[in-house]
Write a structure and sequence with these properties.
53% of the residues lie in helices and 8% in strands. With 282 residues, the chain is mainly alpha-helical. The protein folds into two domains: 125 residues, ATP12-like, CATH 3.30.2180.10; 150 residues, Orthogonal Bundle (ATP12-like fold), CATH 1.10.3580.10. Strands 2-3-4 form a three-stranded antiparallel β-sheet. Strands 1-5 form a two-stranded antiparallel ribbon. Helix 4 crosses helix 5 and helix 6 runs parallel beside helix 9. The chain is globular and about 60 Å long. It starts with a helix and ends with a helix.
Length: 282
């Protein structure tokens, strides 16, 4: 499974060259405090969530309204800005309602760790819309060393579990995408056939919202194939998450659970569910 180093690549394109624009009212600083510099990497976000610095809720009501570029969530009738000063506008009413519900659910303080849809929407608007080719290329790079290609040599119970849970996704790629990959045991890099990589890369969406959701799932699971299977409705989000953690679950069964690791995993699952919601609500 890819570790935090691979996940640290999560939307690296967002960190380069974003334009800074000014919000035309005094709430700009408030939005800065709430979402500016929120980490895009799920592992780093989980670490921040353990010691949040929360802003007092500064609005009475969240709502939505039609706009020329989509459906906007509003706070007391005012539009919300992303960290890069873009307008937070969603492509569908259902998604806008879900984002507005996150803001409405905040109590005395605004806690970004409880707003995964808002964070992912910010990321897509600021980092994917204008960088779609780079984001798609990063997903394609995951395909070269996808989690599902590298199997345990032993013990046999883990080998059998990987085969039972991972092989259906490999078979789906073979049947639906006509992409036949090479599986190996151990961790040594295995070159994949160019034709399989090309055919699977063609299934990567180019719509920035689907692309952003698939990218998030890819970095959270270490598997582009798992993310594409969710996009194709071959897996639901919970199944995909379970499949991605076969090795981790096995280790916990053998050696016991780690509280901090479970907290981080729970936080990352909220990110995974948000990505799944985006795909469902488009």
């Amino acid at each position: 499974m890819l570790d935090g180093g691979a996940q640290g690549a999560h939307f690296e394109v967002v960190k380069r060259g974003l334009l800074r624009r000014t919000m035309p009212f005094a709430m700009r600083e408030i939005f800065d405090d709430v979402f500016k510099n929120q980490p895009l990497d799920p592992t780093e976000a989980a670490r921040l969530a353990a010691r949040p610095q929360l802003r007092t809720r500064f609005y009475s009501q969240a709502s939505i309204a039609d706009a020329g570029n989509g459906i906007r969530p509003l706070l007391d009738g005012r539009p919300i800005k992303t960290p890069a000063r873009n307008e937070l506008a969603l492509p569908t009413r259902a998604l806008a309602e879900a984002v507005a519900a996150e803001w409405e659910a905040q109590r005395e303080r605004v806690d970004p760790s409880t707003m995964p849809l808002t964070r992912l929407s910010n990321t897509i608007i600021d980092g994917v819309v204008s960088n779609a080719d780079a984001v798609a290329a990063e997903i394609a790079r995951y395909l070269r060393s996808d989690l599902l290609f590298y199997r345990a040599e032993r013990p046999q119970e883990l080998v059998d579990r990987q085969e039972r849970l991972w092989n259906p996704v490999i078979d789906w790629a073979s049947d639906a995408l006509e992409a036949r990959f090479v599986l190996s045991q151990g961790v040594l890099y295995t070159e994949q056939p160019d034709v399989a990589l090309e055919r699977t890369s063609a299934a990567i969406p180019r719509d920035p919202w689907r692309l952003g959701a698939v990218h998030a799932m890819t970095t959270l699971t270490g598997s582009a194939l798992i993310a594409l299977a969710v996009l194709a409705r071959r897996l639901d989000t919970a199944q995909a998450w379970s499949i991605a953690h076969v090795d981790e679950d096995w280790n916990m069964e053998q050696w016991g659970q780690d509280g901090l690791a479970l907290e981080r995993r729970a936080f990352r699952f909220t990110e995974m569910r948000a990505a799944g919601q985006v795909l469902e609500l488009l």
